[in-house]
Amino acid sequence: MVWGLNYFYNSKYFKVKSIDIQGNTHYKDEEIKVLIPKVIGANIFEINKKKEEETIARGELYWVKEAELSKIFPDKVIIKLVERKPFLKIVYKDRYFLMDNEGVVLDKIEKEDLNEYKDLILVRNVVNYSVNIGEKIAKKNALSCVDIYKALDSQIKSMIKEARLEDNISGDIVFETYNGEEIIFGDSSEIVKKVEILKQLLKEETKYTIIDLRSPDSPVTKNSGGSIVSE
């Protein structure tokens, strides 16, 4: 009996013959399979699920965020991929890049293709060098720009041209409108409160060149004639 079970265990019946890749839109199946070359022909019982998943997710296919391996007995493996999604656009000089919500640089964008990502906010001053694809950028305020932008209503969003990070200790977040006005948001604290104050100021048709919301209890509007503290 032992001999029979051992023979059956090691027979071709349990050798993996196919790998089904699911959820991949940026890569060909073969680009995934080449990362795990020992799976085909391996005994399905002996495949290290966690190891193969990590091999795929930590490879150089930067759009892949997670991989889940399932064993379909007796001889098939399914790999389900979770791909990263563009979260914002960043720029260095005349070079534009896509970044996801973990700060991973996904791809370079040609100028003529920028309109394809018009729903993503462009954030300037995130980097002062030309980044590499796959690099992870640790700039929390850059990601916070998106959180703030998403909290704005459609009317205010339509006014916003882009955002930037100020070169100061707190890395203040500033939004610039298509008319050249600036909304200094500061950091990502009290987003809801700041957005409501901004709505009120715009509803009152406040004339401004700058709205400073860094202290939401005492916001400041500035125009060419000077500063006005708004209650």
The counted number of beta strands is 13
Number of separate helices? 6
Question: If you consult CATH, what is the topology of the largest domain?
Answer: Rossmann fold
How helical, in percent, are the residues? 10-25%
Radius of gyration, in Å, reads 25 Å
By secondary-structure content and strand pairing, the structural class works out as alpha/beta
**Secondary-structure element order, as H and E?**
HEHHEEEEEEHHEEEHEEE
Report the average pLDDT across residues. Answer: 92
Give short descriptive properties of this protein.
Rossmann fold; 231 residues; alpha/beta
Mind explaining what this structure looks like?
- The chain is α/β, with parallel strands linked by helices and 231 residues long.
- It is 22% helix and 29% strand.
- Strands 6-5-4-7-8-9-10-11-12-13 form a ten-stranded mixed beta sheet, covered by helices on one side. Strands 1-3-2 form a three-stranded mixed beta sheet.
- The longest helix has 13 residues, at 191-203.
- The chain is elongated, with a radius of gyration of 25 Å.
- The N and C termini lie far apart (87 Å).
- The model has no long low-confidence stretch (mean pLDDT 92).
